[in-house]
Amino acid sequence: MVPVLLIGIPLLAGLIxxxxxxVAAKKWALFASLLxxxxxxxxxxxxxSSKALLFNTPWxxxxxxxxxxxxxxxxxxxLCLLTALSFPIIFISTWxxxxxxxxxxxxxxxxxxxxxxxxxxxxxxxxxxxFWELALIPVYFLASQWGGxxxxxxxxxxxxxxxxxSLMMLIGIIYIFFQTTNHxxxxxxxxxxxxxxxxxxQAWLFWLIFIAFAVKMPIFPFHTWQxxxxxxxxxxxxxxxxxLMVKMGVFGLLRWLAPVLPMGTYMWGDTVSGLCxxxxxxxxxIAMRQDDLKRLVAYSSIAHMGLxxxxxxxxxxxxxxxxxxxxxxxxxxIIGLWVIVFLIxxxxxxxxxxxxxxxxxxxxxxxxxxxxxxxxxxxxxxTNAFIGEFLMFSGIYSSKATTYNVVFTVTAAITIILxxxxxxxxxxxxxxxxxxxxxxxAVDIGLNEKVVLGFIVLxxxxxxxxxxxxxxxxxxxxESLLSKMYVKP
Amino acid sequence: xxSIITSAVLGVIMMFSGIFxxxxxxxxxxxxxxxxxxxxxxxxxxxxxxxxxxxTHNMLDFEPFGLLFNxxxxxxxxxxxxxxxxxxxxIGNNPGEYFALIFFVLCGISIAxxxxxxxxxxxxxxxxxxxxxxxxGSDKRxxxxxxxSLKYFLMGAFSTGLMLLGIAFLYGASDxxxxxxxxxxxxxxxxxxxxxTGLILLxxxxxxxxxxxPFHFWTPDVYDGAPTVVTSFMATIVKAGAFxxxxxxxxxxxxxxxxxxxxxxxxIAVCTLFIGNITAVFQQSVKRMLAYSSIAQVGFxxxxxxxxxxxxxxxIILYTAVYSISTIGIFAILVRMKDFSFEGFNGMAxxxxxxxxxxxxxxxxxxxxxxxxxxxxxxxxxxxxxxxGSWLWLVIFALLCAAISVYYYFRVIQAMYFKEGxxxxxxxxxxxxxxxxxxxLIVVLLGIFPELLINRLYIIYV
Lengths: 489, 462
Hints:
The complex is a heterodimer of chains A (about 500) and B (about 450). With about 500 residues, chain A is mainly α. Chain A has helices spanning about 1-15, 20-45, 60-65, 75-95, 100-120, 125-145, 150-180, 185-195, 200-215, 225-230, 235-255, 260-265, 270-290, 295-315, 315-350, 360, 365-375, 385-395, 405-430, 445-465, 470-485, and strands spanning about 55-60, 65-70. The model of chain A has no long low-confidence stretch (mean pLDDT about 85). Helix content of chain B is about 75%, strand content about 0%.
């Protein structure tokens, strides 16, 4: 019942939202997203074996052999929690933003929430594919309608990239479908299918499916849509894109690729890891030269996602656990960063780092929050990201799946240093130094923003000092995932 | 048999309606009532009530597949009349005759969907084609319409010649000298040079009728030149009807020698997908873009012809239904517009939110986005090819083309929603909007519950 509610509430609320008044739609969206948050917390508190976490009904059975199967297991849980938590944060932090046709904006946001949750809950490959696309369409409309100047071209590039990727994935899904024993799309059948697919086939099948996830994450060289789209989309949508949608890629990798095609994943591990490394270094170097805050955060996100992908292909329990925890933490941290970018842009009408400066004296609360979130983003100890990145690094280092584990660990560690360089440099230039004409009359943030940023900082610190709950929540998921992946003895 | 006789009689009635009914609106009303009657007759046929026990000497074979398609074609025509009836009557001075010609085309479609002899195929295709030549040129004072009509007629006559030649070859190749499909399928001549020649000639002329590349050159000009209402009918119901005949021909006559001709169909499919999609990208007029997109859609349908398995027969029923509904919906809006360029759609969402929204659903369906019928239709086509294996390259090619198609379909959506501009004035009644919403709902419904349609294939009444 829980999964149905999780998808049904935002879906219905979104459809109803189109008929509301603009002012009411905002409150309606917040109300619906809080309701979703409540349901998802209930789902996590229920025992893992509870029947309420599963839902299964025949759908298109006669013709296609698919079930509308949903389930909330360990991997899905943590992402559902992140998604459900993020939307209220996004709504509250951008509360003062005025949108034209606000009712359409908030309804589409709710529809994308439904799509995202569907992706994380789907237990049937075709249902997964449906939601995968369903999450994309509202975001396309959101970014194209309410975005910046070059929004149409940028968003369209994003759409074509992801659509092409998902079409390739569709071919892969259908191929595996015909290899399953009794022609079924269910997750269980997919997990057994690799026994009927020889490793040569797995090798090319891997790329068909991987491209979809690689575009979404994004992995070098499929990343070129990302900085433009992040820059042009309205900040609320950028938060959805970077905090949640990129996680769809990692999640897909963990649930629908690595366990489904274990040999293919193993064989291409080094290649993909190499791409991840190139992407991480490349994105970090570009991030150092960015003057636009949004683009800086966008490139830093590419670097972080590369590390997560790298850790997945290391196939060690520490690595996978690190990925699961880091997906949650990265989502929270990057939304925090976007909130701050949003506040700066709203107040000073610019995102250029060179045009800002000296905010620390005028806006001490904002500065404190930003510094903490920045430190979390570069994974300093006692922040939430530290535990995730530490686990990932130890996972990559101890990996038996590759002979280059040391090289990967060292080069990946260099990007952490680079990230410290560009993040701290940004803090220094935006918040310290002399104030200029633009920032002279800066005012500190209001109550709304204080609450939101305070909450994010609280999560960062609590999970940084006491990561036990996150580790416990992901423990079973890691074991079951790893048991299906190919681990070199 | 119900639909063949009823449609022919109704056609004659419509022809004389001009004498008794003076007002356009009453002729439109009569046409709508007639098509309703025809639809009921076809549905009764499907449910096992046959009113006309005519002995056709096995030249016609009424299977659920063909009968179901008749129902789809007539339902689409009903929707077409409800949306654009007024516009059909407004083409020229003889409103009754336009409807009469449409009913004759429907008669041809009902023959073409149930033939089991090559002669009946020929008659069916000709009954479809000849009224269309007239309809294309029905805007008598428009030079483009005349040109299109002449071009269509000349090319059509040529392809008819090819078809006759092909039929003659097949007749000669068959053991008993027979026109029946089953004799061709069972005969010793299967795969002989003479039979292959006939097959290729017949395929070429059928490819012409469904506008598959490289026999598509007439399509853009004819679709562009013909009055927009007529284009809507030609690009959807007629094309789907011809395609069903194509499928029937290959399934019943050449189903056993698939390896002999598969590569031939595959080449046609690749050309059609490629030319249709690439050329559509460069169009400046939405009407011409839709003409090329209809070529591209045929490319996808050809995948069903390639495989001829369960997925194919289920999928082609869904495909024709969804494609026809979506395209009729788009054209219904286009008919009311004066400026067919992409810029003509600018700012539509603000002034006509319902029209823009439904058009978006139709375009998403044509592009094959999930939750619309268009996705599942394409899905069936792909799955049918995947099932027979070893044609993976074709699937990948088709999907790359589908990704290209997103570009030109989304250009219209972008213009409607994201581009600023003052939309041109559209004459739109609440009933018209309600009809569009109904069609959009059907498209979405078929995207979630395709069984509603597909299961009808398996309910057989004696």
